[in-house]
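(Fold this chain)
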Amino acid sequence: MDSEYKKVFTGSFIVAQLIVDKLKAVDITAIVKDETESGRLAGFGSSVPGYQDVYVHQDELENAMPIVNDVTSELDN
C-alpha cells in the first residue's frame, strides 16, 4: 500500500522535535512516529530507544526537504 506521507527524517527525539517545530513555523504539518513508545504501550520493545521518524504529506515534501536538510547539516558542523 502506497502512503501519501513520506519519511523525511529518522533520528533522535531532540532533532525530530526541532524539525517538527521548524516545519510548523512554515505551516507544514509533520507526523512523528515513535515505534519505541508504541511498543512500550503495547507491552513489548522495539527499535532504538529515543529515535523517531518524521513524515510529511507528499504535497509538502518539496518545501519540507530544504528545512530538514538545513537542520541536519547544522548538526554535522
